[in-house]
Amino acid sequence: MRLTPRLAFCLTSAFYGLVSACAAAALDLPGAASETARQSELTSAEPFPTGPYQGADTPRIMAEGDVERVAYRVTGTSLTSRQLITPLRSQLESEGFQTLFSCADTVCGGFDFRYQLDVLPEPAMHVDLSDYEYLVAEHADGRVVALLTSHAPGAGFVQISTVTPSDAPPLELTTPSQTNLTQSLRPSPATGDLVTRLEARGRVVLDDLAFDTGSATLGTGPFTSLQNLAAYLTSHPDVRIILVGHTDNTGALESNTNLSRQRAQAVRQRLINTYGVPSGQISADGIGYLAPRVSNATPEGREQNRRVEAVIASTQ
């Protein structure tokens, strides 16, 4: 069965248990639309501009919850960016969403405004800086949807970004004593959550790690995420993971890439030396600021983007 854009969006909502969202935010796109990319983040945050670009003073709404970004390409169309976004806006408003802000290219702020948005990369999502439309809308139940449309010769592009409030209870992390770190790898109560996210999404952010500013020196810990990850790896010897370091966009890409790689390597060594995870199960690399978690436009966003993720590379 071929998934229409409406059905694909609806199934995504159902995956997260969002029955009402399936009915309220399943948007009809033109029949020639095909999905080109998808990105999901559980329990995250997304800052959406709610006014034209004003530098650090650009007004924003910080939407917190499960983030889903989906890009579509509409082939063989002469529809303009405005013509692509207008029916989607009408559908949102008919389902109870209130438009908070909408604008077009130069009115938004052109180049500067576009680069405050978290846009899926080319060629999945193309944005002509002189021809794009943006809209952000909010529902009374807390959901926030942002639309971005643009156009290229013979094709239109649409990105739908949805943030749905997370209903899951906050993580309850335990802090084992330092002596127990090398003597026991019994999972803490949060292990199930980390493992669930890792196996469901293929990756998980190790959110409790701490590094010195601008340094690859990993704090002394203990870090619950590493205890839990080590427990999982030692009980699943066939699983191979890659630790991937990320930075914010402050500074040059080369130096950030080197720093992110060094931080991932430091985490690898901690898992091997302190927790006894076999070295063959873990590799490490870094990609600097090329895969931001949220926008780097705010201090809070930059802090979220400085992270190390565990990515499943193989289960064989």
Over the alpha carbons, how many angstroms does the gyration radius reach? Answer: 21 Å
Q: Briefly note the structural class of the backbone.
A: alpha+beta
Report the span from N to C terminus: 30 Å
Q: What share of residues are in beta strands? A: 25-35%
Order of helices and strands: HHEEHEHHEEEHHEHEHEHE
Shape: elongated
Structure in words:
The protein is α+β, with helices and mostly antiparallel strands and 316 residues long. The protein is built from 10 helices and 10 strands. The protein has a 6-stranded antiparallel β-sheet with strand order 1-2-6-5-4-3. A 4-stranded mixed β-sheet has the order 7-10-8-9. A hairpin with a 2-residue loop joins strand 5 and strand 6.
Q: Any key phrases for this structure?
A:
316 residues; alpha+beta; 60s Ribosomal Protein L30, Chain: A; six-stranded antiparallel β-sheet; 10 helices; 28% strand
